[in-house]
Amino acid sequence: MNDPGLLDTRQAVRCLQSGGVIAYPTEAVYGLGCDPGNERAVRSILRLKSRPAAAGLILIGDCLERFEPFIEPAGPELLQRALDAWPGPVTWLFKRAPGVPDWLAGKHDTIALRIPDHPVCRSLCEAFGGAIVSTSANPGGFEPARNAEQVRAYFPEGLCGIVEGELGDEQRPSEIRDLASGRVLRAGG
Q: Would you tell me how many other CB atoms lie within 10 Å of the CB of residue 146?
């Protein structure tokens, strides 16, 4: 897996299915993604970023149903709170389902979820048929990558490839809010 090349959606899905890590454009920055059910792939992302597993990771999907295996049922008012902000650059912390591993959700009793308003992200999730991990493409302590060349410089090894596409119009990574309280935990773009 040297010098990550450009991938189309079909190639990216094959990579995800085979346990690989991809980079792809999001609303504000490039992201790293993998199959959230593949521990080896998730741990590869954590290693690439020098990120502790206890921190947890965000999942993206093209529809709410992609998140069902990862969350406890939420009442209609809470679901509507999230749906009113989606698709868009808001990540919601949902109550984590039993069985969701710590290497994915970290030390939290919640899991971070987002339905992005970015065509590449949405088409990846739709073609994959499930949620994917989404974390900024940067090693710890560095600014997130904003183009494919920066992704290559940060990660000359360890990626299947980089999905083609343009960044969205946001300037900062997604806002993070607690679903139960509505409290903003990280301001967004």
A: 15
Q: What CATH number corresponds to the domain at position 162? A: 3.90.870.10
Number of domains within the chain: 1
CA 5 to CA 146: how far, in whole Å?
16
- pTM for the whole thing? 0.94
For residue 93, pLDDT over 50 is answered with: yes
- pLDDT for 189 equals 55
Alpha helices for 72-167 (secondary structure H): 76-85, 102-105, 119-128, 148-154
Residue with tokens 């990540």: 91
pLDDT in tens, 120-130: 999 999 999 99
What lies within 8 Å, CB to CB, of 75 at 6+ separation is: none
CA separation for the pair 91, 58 (Å, rounded) = 8
Report the chain's mean pLDDT, rounded to a whole number. 94
Residue 15 parent element (H or E): helix 9-17
Neighbour count for residue 86 (Cβ, 10 Å):
18
Residue 98 has a CB neighbour count (10 Å cut-off) of 5
* Domain extent at residue 85: 5-186
